[in-house]
Automatic annotation (TrEMBL):
It comes from Morus notabilis. This is Outer membrane lipoprotein blc. It comes from the Eukaryota. Residues 12-159 form the Lipocalin/cytosolic fatty-acid binding domain. One of its GO terms (cellular component) is cytoplasm. Pfam families: Lipocalin_2. The keyword Lipoprotein applies. One of its GO terms (biological process) is response to reactive oxygen species. Residues 153-173 are annotated as: Disordered.
Amino acid sequence: MAKIEMEVVKGLDIERYMGRWYEIASFPSRFQPKNGVNTRATYTLKEDGTVNVVNETWTDGKRGYIQGTAYKADPKSDEAKLKVKFYVPPFLPIIPVVGDYWVLYIDPDYQVALIGQPTRKYLWILSRKTHIDEDIYNQLVQRAVDEGYDVSKLHKTPQSDPPPEGDEGPKDTKGIWWIKSIFGK
C-alpha cells in the first residue's frame, strides 16, 4: 500500500515558533537513555535567518545537551520542512549530521506541535508547557495516525514541575545519543 503524502504546515511563523518546547511524547530511539526525563528543545532565531537549536535531557540527575542549527530545506517553499544540522561529537565540530524536521501540525496559538519526518521513524509531540490536556494529546496522536504513523511506538516523556534550570547539576558531556536518536545512526 502506498504511503499517503504527509501534510506539512504551510506559512509557519518562525519567530512565533522560537523559544522553549517540552517533549510530551516521542518515538524512543534504542540509543536514547531509557530513563531520560525533562527532555526539551530551545530554539533561537539568528540574524541570518537560521535557528540555533539546543536539545536537553536529564538522566540520573545529569543534564545532557547538544546544539545544532535548523534551516529551511527549500527557502522558496512555504512548507515547514526544516533541516537540522548537528556536529558530532559536540565538542569537536568536524562531522555535521543532517536530519529532517517537518512541522506536521501547530495550533493557532503556537502552544502544541507535532513534528515528524519523511521516513515516519521519528515523531515528537511538543508543548510550550510541561503537560497538556489528554484531549489535545489524543487529537495530536490521531493526527499522527492520519499521517501514517505507527503510534503504538509513542512513549510519553516524564516532565517535572517546575522544570529543572538550564545549567543545574553535573553535565553529561557525551551527548551523542541525541544524534543517534534523531538520525537513527
